User: What shape does this take?
Amino acid sequence: MSNQQTVTGACFCGAIGYSIAYKDHPIVNCHCTMCRRTSGAAYVTWAIIENDDFSFSRGNPKTLASSDHGTRTFCDQCGTPLTCVSTRHPDKIDITVGSFDAPAAFVPTQEYYTDTKLSWTDHVAELPQNE
Assistant: This one.
């Protein structure tokens, strides 16, 4: 993605929606154990956005204090993880790229917490799809 554009996203059931004034924000894969446990996935891909560039447009997400420095939001109807705010970078909000309406264009360029990365994430073969 390049230049500024409006990016929208939502939870699985559509109860929570948001918009981002996107302008080449970092896209990262986080392998920390908190991301793994709160998402049920091997890692979470995040867009790191300035607070002023993000707003919820529909619904009110639930919050979870996932650590002494981080608070996550999610939909209390369908469970979709949406955001994470950290006191380590209070001027930014992390948004789950998987909740974007069109996530394919947002390619990660960095990885965080690779010391806790599951070793098999680099060695998974693609299975044929049953149609």
Q: What stands out?
A: The chain has one helix and ten strands. The mean pLDDT is 91.
